[in-house]
Amino acid sequence: MANLSRTNVFRVIGALLLSLLALRLPLGSLAPAQALQPYSYWVNVSDSGAKGDGVTDDSAAILRAVRRAIERGRNGGNVVYFPPSHCYNIASPLELPDPPVRVMLFFDSCLTLNATVTIHGMYNLHGNSSGPKAAFSMDNLASLGVGDKVGPAIRIQGGGTRLENLAIGYMHGSADGIVIDHSARVTLKNVWVQMDQNNKAGIPLKITGGFGYEIEDGGYSAAWDAKGASIQINEDAVACNWMGIFRLRHAFLSSHGIVINERCGGVNSLSFEDVLYENARDPFLTIFALGGSGVWGMDLRGVNFADSQTPAPPMIYVHSPIHRVRGISVVNSVTDGSKILDGDPVTGVNVW
Description:
It is a single chain. By secondary structure, this protein is mainly β. It has 2 helices and 31 strands.
């Protein structure tokens, strides 16, 4: 374990990026990625009446296309295709119903979200991408621009959902970015959520209850002087049961870290691997364990905690006056913060 000065921050970042490339991780590639080509049997939103002119409300037409894809089932037509256009405008709340088969929404164009998209079930929202890919870059992603009064941009309330190659923002007012409620087996792959700098309360990624979350690549960054977090993980405070099996890999955070809230149920089995956290104003992990079974089973591997602000925060801070945090492992991680662990006592800490 080593402490880093600000003069060494860029050296550490460069070393991290080189290690990612050496491991052939999907954050970066020296070769261009080829855009996928549409198939004629996909359901085209234009055929359902979507204009894609950036002005007309395309919500109803998109929903018609989704229902048509659901009706086709597994016969090769369960992909909804958004051909290149100015931008598809979702001006009315769009609720994607729980389908009996997986449905993909394949974006070859941008979207403007002037209302929330709510997902109930097995959907894959996939942004087509092409051109050279660079580590920690939002280039060549499908853009989901967000209106001034929208929040959240996307709400997930169903199991088996996947978001991929999307850049979401900016989130205005006090709006959250992506909100996941009581779901299971949710994957976010190369998804970026950007907050407007005047949004002091919004959380880029907020997860409540459920289990089986895979967050890989992409970035989640709250506003510079926000009062929240870049990622918030909450137990199910209504049912007071546990939330867990969460994995964050090859991702980028800025200014604010991750907050875990537990009061009456339990949160466990959390893994953080190869995460770059820059301009750190808060701890990488802030843990509130105030009742129930507590918080346990956390593994930090290859976390780069860099460019801490003054006063420098610790990597992990624990709020648990009743000693309900246990089992933290910190391996091959670096920090220029004040210390690794601070706050209330933790049972079973290993730092290698």
